[in-house]
Here is the input.
Amino acid sequence: MLVPAKKGEPQTIGFLLLPSFSMMAFVSAVEPLRVANRLGGAAHYRWQIIAPQGNAVTASNGMSLVADTSVDAEPRCSLLVVCAGFEPEKHYSRRIAAWLQRSARDGTTLAAMDTGSFILARAGLLDGYRATVHWESLDSFRERFPKVEVESGLFVIDGNRLTGAGGTAALDMMLHLITLQHGHRLAAAVSEQFIHARIRDPQDRQRMEPGIRQGIAHAGLARAIELMETRLEELASAADLCAAAGLSQRQLERMFRKHFQITPWRYYLHLRLQRAQALLQYTELPVVQVAVASGFNSAAHFSRTYARWAGKAPSAERTTITAGVMPSLR
Here is the structure.
């Protein structure tokens, strides 16, 4: 269970910032706490920034924040939030893992935002728990940590573990925490301060509906794309896609050419290669396993196809990580 707020005492929340952390997620988590204190007329929360070495930490946007303390000081918190961004496991260390494990044994509630879940999971602190991570890393996280029950919602609260998708999902996660500890009225007042008209549910989708994301009004085409996105390993057949869209194969091909200037099969291939890229960047899975997870029957065929698409071999992807932006369809 979540550690309840003690009456009359502020809850101490520690934010462990790892290099290249998401500033958006961090600010979205801290600001609701600040406004809850102001509107609640009491110091419900206090927080501190923790860095691996205790020095300034640079976010993915290039801005730096000065830390209040270091991991070596082992600051005491009732809630400890791991904030990460691109290449989360690059910043994992046994020292950080040992501190997180000791904190868990001491009864600290552990949380993660964006790809911070990779750190908790690698330390063995999410085994048997439900958890989530940013949508771009969901498949990689699921493959990397089979003992974690991975969900795709905005955030997950499972006992004394909280995990969020990052970005503005951190705002909803903290509003939910405020609701549990200090009531709906305060949480709603905080939400209104940020022009946030609805406190989203944990199960809300991270990503837009395919039709909205791609700017298409044709419902059948959107259904075909959604089926593709959910069938990247065991591929949907042409008949499956046509049935989902309610179109003949010729009509489906015409719709894809109209909206994307490519065939449905080429579009489907791009989605599979995007998934492969994420698996290569966020996991250490062998190339042959990445190929299978992306719907390829042959590692050799996958490698040739990937090299033509990305301009480099799959193995090279791990030595030249991109800025984390998914490639556009081309």
In short: The first strand starts at residue 11 and ends at 17. Residues 264-282 form the longest helix (19 residues). The chain has 14 helices and eleven strands.
